[in-house]
Amino acid sequence: MDFRDSDTLVGPSGADLLPATAATAVKVVIVGGFGVGKTTLVGSVSEIRPLTTEETMTLAGAGVDDLAGVERKTETTVAMDFGRISISDELVLYVFGTPGQERFWFLWNGLFEGALGAVVLVDTRRLEVSFEVIGRLEDRGVPFVVAVNGFPESPDHPVEELRAALDLPPEVPIVACDARRRDSCRDVLMALMRHLYDLAASRP
Ligand SMILES: Nc1nc2c(ncn2[C@@H]2O[C@H](COP(=O)(O)OP(=O)(O)O)[C@@H](O)[C@H]2O)c(=O)[nH]1
Ligand SMILES: [Mg+2]
């Protein structure tokens, strides 16, 4: 199986990349700050009706959820999003979106169990919300790619500036995406799969 040359996965099985038990079902997690587009991304890629736990934000969130830059946002994910996408006959991704707000860190323990990798979704208007998320993934040793969700007002930074700003090592892929577009979100997940493949291949 080679993820690097083609957009679709070819080869008899995913066994050379994944443990035998994961050859057909792989768990990935979408993380990121508040309002960066996680729920949108999971909804865009999912071929099943995504399970979301959106709740209309109430006064309870006032002063707690930072709405700067996302003033139009009226719903927030209280626990997680869940969706599924078939990449090939052999590979199905189960996609979990989870909040990066501090008061939800307790969810991370269970959610990351068995996860092969993560996508960190970022909004360039509010990069600082990604710092702690990235730190937590690094602490856990979870491989990840960074996907920059393009909002109309978001400043366009060259990739290497973003890498420096987020203090990311050169091997961590940074890709652009539009969380509303299915093909774009699929490309992000493919970038993660390629990255996992490269990491597995570079291990002695
Ligand atoms: N322009 C634009 N808006 C987006 C994009 N992705 C999400 N949004 C909007 O941004 C808001 C927050 O998205 P949401 O998926 O709820 O963020 P979450 O908190 O990370 O789950 C929603 O109103 C979305 O419709 C995008 O790629 N471009
Ligand atoms: Mg959400």
UniProtKB/TrEMBL annotation:
Family annotation (Pfam families): ATP_bind_1 (PF03029)
InterPro entries in alphabetical order: Gliding_Motility_GTPase (IPR052705), Gpn (IPR004130), P-loop_NTPase (IPR027417)
UniProt keyword list: ATP-binding, GTP-binding, Hydrolase, Nucleotide-binding
GO MF terms held by the record: ATP binding; GTP binding; hydrolase activity
Family: Belongs to the GPN-loop GTPase family.
Protein name, UniProt field: ATP-binding protein
